[in-house]
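Target chain:
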Amino acid sequence: MNKHLSIILFLLIFSINSSGQINSLSIGIAGGIGNMKGNSPTQTSFILIGFVELSPSFWNEVDFRFDYSYTRKLEYLFPDNNPKRYYPTMQAFSLKIIFRQLLSKVFLLEEGLGPLALNDRSYSDINEWDYGVSGWFAIGLDLKSVNYLPLVISVGSHFGLTVTNTTASFNTYCIQTQYFFLN
């Protein structure tokens, strides 16, 4: 896992420095609640997402978003006296193609779809990598056009569906903040 993370960070660092083909570069975070399911019943969960998004100069209609999401059973946040209790978790990496449509000067629609690699740990003895598709749909406020803040705030739904091994999936509702460096 550390080897994969090192390779991904290496690629991200060097892609950020070569801005000749990049119109826009942004980072963002999101968080919310929803549900997750592996080889288990559906469980209420929370999700945390971090992402880097690039808008290439050769394709103005789409952006490319690489994200990491961490989903865990919601009871993990509640106080508990049992230190041996296991809380199911899922970690996922995805690369989405993001489309945006301006609804007005301030409001926008955002949707995306792409491949997903998900690490399912729904039970303590399960540690499976599943592969499938991940998606995002949101409506948001584009503050760049209002007061020149390079920021977009949105609410939406993030989902992941796999078709291998444990066929793990998640569906969450999130609040997202995105900050633009280049524009």
Remarks:
- The domain at 2-182 is CATH 2.40.160.20 (Porin).
- The mean pLDDT is 89.
- DSSP finds two helices and eight strands in the chain.
